[in-house]
Design a protein that fits this description.
By secondary structure, this protein is of the alpha+beta class. It has three domains: 99 residues, Butyryl-Coa Dehydrogenase, subunit A, domain 1 (Orthogonal Bundle), CATH 1.10.540; 109 residues, Beta Barrel (Butyryl-CoA Dehydrogenase, subunit A, domain 2); 152 residues, Butyryl-CoA Dehydrogenase, subunit A, domain 3 (Up-down Bundle), CATH 1.20.140. The chain is 47% helix and 15% strand. α3 packs parallel to α6. The longest helix is centred in the middle third of the chain and has 35 residues. The N and C termini lie far apart (53 Å).
């Protein structure tokens, strides 16, 4: 397990408690309420807030390692919390760079507000940059109408970060990024979350029906398809957070498989299955797949935290690290199931849950198709917003 950065944020006692509850949450499809309350009391939810504003001032690189440790013990808890943590991280990075436009978010987080993300939409493969949700300018703010998916922390969020398309904006269509207060009117949370994996996140849908959000909660208005440091920071904090969560899952699966084959016996061999050549080959494949994952994630997160200037190459750097982590995690968990000899098929076996959780990594942005598009266009010097023309 990764060394913990701050024992007063994630203690061993906390982590043992999380691990003890994870199967129960998964089985009952129940939100990780006890974990959430304990993380809130510990200061975990404000660890990215600058120290000057009362937080712990952890960088993206430091937060990612904390999330990796949490995910090793409780993947869905880490994934759900990632939504809140990345918003505070985005605001903190901008604040340190001299942009105080989201200082209100940091102060609200310190006051106990919980931030969630509403960017996923059916029919939109470019979240943040485009939207199927309608944003209409009205006096004092905007009205939003649309259907959002995968809104983690549904039982507890108090501020819901979303975006919509302002189609008739002067100068061309624009994307409006704003935050919905839970006590607002004109929206509903739809109980849709009964999924294969990551069940404890309770990522229910949100339906917006001309929902009003005042100007004070509008974070950015950008040209459709365009990005700025705000959007890039969301990308970095969210996607690298995802990658580290699946890195934690991969490590846990590798350890379970390794320990399992040391104890597994067969009538066909005189010693345990650890001495079977094909089992050794499978274990080697898992270890070889895992070894590069954490260093890759660490390097990209450190470069971000240190302000390394990759310019237009940053999106490719970010999605590449996440892609490698998720793909390695899936291969490792799949192979771990193979060497388990069928035990992993049973409900209640930890590998069975990890197998379902690991499959969800490929759904998180950016998916494999978008990753390859971003990396290829970056390598070829093609603008990421350019559409293909045939013939």
């Amino acid at each position: 397990m990764d060394a913990m950065l701050r024992d007063d944020v994630l203690t061993r006692e906390m982590l043992q408690g999380f691990a003890g509850r994870v199967a129960h949450y998964d089985r009952e499809n129940r939100f990780f309420r006890e974990d959430f309350d304990e993380l809130a009391r510990s200061g975990y939810l404000t660890m990215a807030v600058p120290e000057e504003l009362g937080g712990r001032g952890l960088t993206l690189a430091e937060v990612c390692r904390q999330q990796r440790t949490l995910a090793y013990h409780a993947p869905a808890t880490a994934l759900g919390i990632n939504m809140h943590v990345y918003w505070t991280g985005v605001a903190a990075d901008l604040w340190r760079a001299g942009d105080r436009s989201l200082e209100w978010m940091l102060r609200e987080a310190m006051a106990g507000e919980i931030f969630a993300a509403g960017h996923s939409e059916r029919g939109n493969d470019l979240p943040l940059l485009l939207s199927t949700t309608k944003a209409q300018r009205v006096d004092g703010g905007f009205r939003f109408s649309g259907h959002k998916m995968f809104g983690s922390l549904a039982p507890v969020w108090t501020r819901y970060g979303l975006h919509g398309l302002w189609a008739d904006a002067e100068g061309g269509p624009k994307i409006v990024h704003a935050f919905l207060s839970r006590d607002s009117a004109g929206y509903k949370i739809v109980d849709t979350w009964d999924t294969m994996g990551m069940r404890a996140t309770r990522s229910d849908d949100v339906v917006l029906d001309e929902t009003f959000i005042p100007d004070r909660y509008v974070a950015r208005i950008l040209p459709a398809g365009g990005a700025d440091p705000f959007v890039l920071a969301i990308f970095a904090w969210a996607v690298l957070g995802f990658g580290n969560i699946y890195c934690g899952i991969a490590r846990r699966a590798l350890e379970l498989a390794t320990e399992g084959v040391k104890k597994k016996t067969s009538a066909a061999v005189s010693r345990t299955m650890a001495y079977h050549p094909e089992v050794q080959h499978a274990v080697a494949q898992m270890a070889l797949a895992f070894d590069p994952v954490a260093p890759h994630l660490d390097q990209v997160a450190r470069d971000w935290s240190d302000g390394v200037d990759y310019g237009h190459g940053w999106p490719a750097k970010i999605v590449s690290a996440k892609h490698h982590a998720v793909e390695a995690c899936w291969r490792i968990v799949d192979t771990a199931m193979e060497v388990s000899g069928g035990a992993g098929m049973f409900r209640g076996n930890e590998l069975e849950r990890l197998f379902r959780d690991a499959r969800c990594g490929r759904f998180h942005p950016a998916n494999a198709m978008l990753v390859h598009e971003i990396v290829a266009k970056t390598q070829l010097g093609i603008d990421l917003g350019e559409q293909p023309r045939w013939g």
